[in-house]
Amino acid sequence: KDGTRSDVIMVVSIDSKREQINILSIPRDTRVLYPNSKYDKINHAMGYKKPEETIIGLVKQVTGMPIHYYCEIDFEGFRNVIDILGGVEFNVPMDMHYEDPTQDLYIHVNKGYQKLNGKQAEGVVRFRAGYATGDNGRIPVQQDFIRALFEQKLKPQYIIKAPTLMKE
């Protein structure tokens, strides 16, 4: 809510020639050296001055990879993008039920293959409570969701939605 932390950090590479999507997730609790010479979690970068420059620099530091483009999506924008695209078909790996009123977070998604709307998709990618390893346990699910999103929606019929998506 305060905009000072990232929930998810990913490096996504799309190889259109090979029709491949590669995703590298950076766990939110990864300890990094900030430009001010202090160590902190990488997901705290959004609370620093020049947050975009800071997070890009830290991702470069962790991965050694060049970052050509940057995209920041808040929870509302994520939900809206999924809804604009008509939902995403996805196999939810487990029942996901969690409530945290302080975050205004209410996740109720059942296990199984289904078409997720924006609110359900947000719940699936944010859910951590059911994984023994917390944030690290949800990473493969997040990656699978992003792959499903790209595979289903990077198609010509969605080009007409590009202006609305870019605005969102």
Notable characteristics:
two-stranded antiparallel ribbon, alpha+beta, 168 residues, 8 strands
What does this protein structure show overall?
The protein has 168 residues and is of the alpha+beta class. The chain is 34% helix and 23% strand. It contains 5 helices and 8 strands. Strands 1-2 form a two-stranded antiparallel sheet. Strands 3-4 form a two-stranded antiparallel ribbon. The longest helix has 19 residues, at 135-153. It is globular. The two termini are 18 Å apart. The mean pLDDT is 92.
**Per DSSP, what share of the residues sits in E-state strands of 2 or more residues?**
15-25%
Helix content: 25-40%
Number of distinct beta strands: 8
Rg of Cα set: 16 Å
Average pLDDT, all residues: 92
Gross geometry:
globular
Low-confidence stretches: none
Question: Which sequence of SSEs, written as H and E, runs from N to C?
Answer: EEEEHHEEEEHHH
Secondary structure category: alpha+beta
Task: Give a nutshell description of this structure.
The protein is α+β, with helices and mostly antiparallel strands and 168 residues long.
Question: What secondary-structure arrangement, pairings included, does this model have?
Answer:
Layout: E1 10-15, E2 20-25, E3 31-33, E4 39-41, H1 51-63, H2 75-84, E5 88-92, E6 96-100, E7 105-109, E8 112-116, H3 118-126, H4 135-153, H5 162-167
Antiparallel strand pairs: 1-2, 3-4, 5-8, 6-7
